[in-house]
Sequence to fold (758 residues):
Amino acid sequence: MGMVDIPVTRLQRAAAASLPAGMSTGELPLSHTLVLILSLLVLLLAGVAITAARRREREGRDHLRALHEREQRLQLSLWASNEYYWQYDLDTRELEETRVTAETGGEFAVRVIPDRQTRIHEEDAPIVRERLIAYLRGETPYFQSDHRLQSSNGGWQWVRTRGRAIAHTPDGRVRLLAGTARNIDAVREMEGQHRIAAEVMRSMAESVLVVDAQFRFVTINPAFTRISGYDADDVLGKDAGLLNSTRHDADFYASCRAAMAANAHWVGEMWQVRKDGREFLCEMQATAMDDPVNGTRMYVLVAEDITERRRIERELRYLANYDPLTNLPNRTLLSERLSHAIVQARRQNGRLALLFLDLDHFKDINDSLGHATGDRILRATAQRLREVAGEGPTIARIGGDEFTILLDASDAPEAADRLAQAVIDAFDAPLQLDGRHEFIISPSIGISLFPDHAQVPTDLLKHADTAMYRAKASGRRAFARYSHEMDADIRHRASLVAALRRAIERDELYLVFQPQLSLTDRRLTAVEALLRWSSKELGEVAPSQFIPLAEENGLIVPIGEWVLREACRTLAAWRQAGVDNDLVMSVNVSALQLQRADFAAAVKNALAEHGLPPEALELELTETVLMAQPELASERLQAFREMGVSIAVDDFGTGYSSLAYLHRLPINTLKIDKAFIDGLGCSPDNEDTAITTTIIAMARTLGLLVVGEGVESPEQLDFLQHHGCDMAQGYHVARPLPADACLRTLLENAAQARALRA
Ligand code: C2E
Ligand code: MG
Ligand code: MG
Fold:
């Protein structure tokens, strides 16, 4: 072996060198030989010793190097793991830390920090102690604890330590513990945030679902389960298309995914299907989450069920734009449609017509029959309007009993007239209120035109309203087209109403009396009281002007009561003056008066006040008033029959009542309207002639007294007499007269009759 060879060769060389010159080993004596051998031996031993020492030295160096390398590795691993080494002496309670820091130049620096003070946070100390005891008792394989330690700068930091015993006392007690520790502030912070995030997701009201790049479920929260009905087992790993609804086509969902992928963000509304098949609308917000390390992507979808919210919004929108009673558009929506229609019409040089419809006497009906019936009438009216106007025009209810129909037609004026007439005709047939009840009501309609009358919705509406008033004034159940003169008319009406309110107290009202002639004995057996108004500001105002106005705003109630008392007062005075006791006073009564529950009492009082018997009074009601509310009319009239006051049906023939129906009401007299009397005697086959003779014949068989109204000629009078009519009233008999003039006429007539009899 080489190592051994080298010293031997050297020894030989050294021995040779030590001999005197010229002397070889073979020539030496024995003593010399022994010395030489001993010397060689010594040399050999010395060489061996040197070699061993050198080897030891080399081995020591190698060992040190290996030790150094291990130490370097240990340092490196401590540095890389960001941990430090600690050692704790249980006897001295001394803690020693070895920290490795990479100083500049890549060299590691080791600092040993001996520490006698406990720097464990007081809240964590009991746990640390507990863990240590558990380990020392052999209950745990090693000691481990997470706790707070105070760092050199005084702040607290969380550390995770792990260690075990490295030295024991002779009696086997642990003397020295060692291990590593590292700062876990960041870990704990991350864990904390993770916990918070998980808790937030768990408790969120919105459903949260995380899907992978292929839109497969990765995780869901409880709200998702609550909203969709699917739990984790149902969905995890499956495609999110599981929830797709048929309300959207496949392209919609594909485009949403494409947008999420392209923009990493998407917000929108989407219909989805629950597990039980019900659909729900959700407002969704999708955000992409990219993992920079492995390049994968996930989407966090936060969705809120907005089905109910949308439904409420829709309902509110409906309420804001529609009338809940009739389901027709309301004033707001009408204005919107009207504006839109005007813009269109202006662009296309088109024309529009707005029909403004108001039900005649609706307010009275509502007041007397109650709002429930009023509502039924309005609903039935809406239905009737739909039937007449069809799908095209916008029908709206803009308040109370006011309806509009918006017509878009190139021949708007004519089309509007046609439609208005069709509506009026359609209301001739009774409205069906509920399976059992029927009701007849008529509309009055005003028409305004774009661009003829107005350019903006409000004006168009205002003018149609004005025209409607004109239609009402012209006797109701009529339509009128707006004209600019009507505005002056409206102003005039307003001033009339204002003046009329003060008419009673200012004593401007008075009565005139028109006698009625009995055709059997040519006696004046009745007079009709007719109202007149002599206004201080406006002069004489015709009843046809102010009576409809008074009816519209309820003034007719106090005025009618005044008429009743005044008529009774006059009759009582006439009786005092010698007029026959069988003279009947006829008084006109409006619908509104009849509806008043206290009307019968008012009549009774008026009679009693002037000591008149009930037979002295007759109340005139038009058939329209009677037919509008047959049940109420029947009930009220029954009270008068019991009282003994007679009832006349005025203007008979102008309404739509059937004589057979009227007969069921407790009435006494029929007054044939002037319109039929006018045509009498012109020619035998005249229609009026036929109608009048029929009415007279039927009335007689029903036991009713018949009066011909508006008799202006002797021919008409003769005709009536010839056909068995009981009485005649008209200019030919006598004009309406002031009280004193009428009294004279009555007395004269009575005297003539007496003379004739004598
Ligand atoms: P009415 O009850 O049918 O009264 C008859 C109307 O015909 C009266 O008109 C009378 O002057 C008119 N007249 C009578 N004979 C003739 C004739 O031969 N030729 C013509 N052209 N007309 C004739 P007046 O007084 O203008 O009354 C109109 C309407 O006003 C009445 O029609 C009645 O409905 C209503 N009215 C009058 N006074 C009252 C009243 O005190 N209360 C109520 N509620 N209405 C009244
Ligand atoms: Mg009358
Ligand atoms: Mg009349």
Observations:
- Residues 670 and 724 are 13 Å apart (CA to CA).
